[in-house]
Amino acid sequence: MNREQFEKIMNGKNGGKDLYHLKDNNAFVGLQIIRKYCPTKGVEGADHDVIYSVPANDLVAADITEEDAIRLRNINWMIEDDVMACFV
Fold first, then answer.
1. Which of 2, 37, 84, 87 could form a disulfide linkage to 62, CB 3.0–4.6 angstroms apart?
2. How many CB atoms sit inside 10 A of residue 63's CB?
């Protein structure tokens, strides 16, 4: 998938419930997904109520699947200033 397709997924509406958010911490689950593609990365920064991880381009370059991109979106991950972010 290219960056445009990834952004379209991340900016889209939730495509159904993701059961992960019902039992697990969205930030933690998202970091596990990100780690599949960028194994040496994790939380790269934090603010008052948000954590930041890898640049979105890193996930695209690592060939993130559409399924994992949708899962990230559905558990409230987003692209913030070209970096993957999640409110905590």
1. 37
2. 9
User: What domain range includes position 75?
Assistant: 3-87
Angstrom distance (rounded) from CA 32 to CA 3: 21
The label of the residue with tokens 């890898």 reads 54
Please give the Cα distance from 28 to 77 (Å, whole number). Answer: 11
Split into its structural domains, the chain has a count of 1
> Please, what sign has the CA dihedral across residues 82, 46, 59, 72?
negative
Could you report the per-residue pLDDT of 7-36, keeping only the tens digit for each?
A: 999 998 655 555 555 567 899 999 999 999
Non-local (6+) Cβ contacts of 76 within 8 A are 21, 26, 86, 87
